[in-house]
Amino acid sequence: MQFDFDKLSVAERYKLLTSTVVPRPIAWVVTQDAAGVVNAAPFSFFNAFSSDPAIVGVSVGGSPRGPGDKDTLANIKATGQFVVCLVSEATAQAMNITAIDMPPGVDELAEAGLTPVPSRRVKPPRIAESPVAMECETFQLVPLGGNTLVLGRVLSMEMRDDCVADPAKLYIDTPRMELLGRLHGRGWYARTTDRVEIPRITWDTWQARKAGKPD
User: Fold this and answer.
1) Which of 82, 102, 134, 201 lies most in the core, judged by the most C-beta atoms within 10 Å?
2) Domain spanning 10-211: CATH 3.40.1410.10
3) Where along the chain do its domains lie?
4) pLDDT tens digits, residue range 78-125?
């Protein structure tokens, strides 16, 4: 079946994209406004895009309360700083609470029972319960119609000690983080505990396999 995106509504295009581009990592973005009021919200239109410079991107939509920016985007525009915390299975329910459209001025971290910890390079705090946090400064804001793509340069990464297998070699015990990915619909997520390993192969190995030769 073919879907012509030029003939679909915004909601219909969103439904198709979020039902097929899965699983998506979740950016739990912590910001604060110019007065220091902290905001936290999850976004699954998120990924890493570059290592030199180190860039992560979060796509932020408009405010559900009407015209204007979501608090996350408004705060980033005002301060140029944010922290991306990743969501583990242990923090899933707290993340879901911070996704509630709360009235302005409500402390999402307090509502979810989360612990703010001072960051090292930026003013917004990180979430202590998250296994990894990336402190970012704004690199570029890209208008995308109804959304704005926030590209942030990672200044510092804080990781839970037991998730670092070898600090000298930067070996990370990724499975230990037990991160979640976003799936289809409003409430479906994927664990990263079910994995399959597919080793990379060289061109010569591929040619040998086609010729029926052992690796």
Assistant:
1) 82
2) no
3) 10-211
4) 999 999 999 999 999 999 999 998 887 789 999 999 999 999 999 999
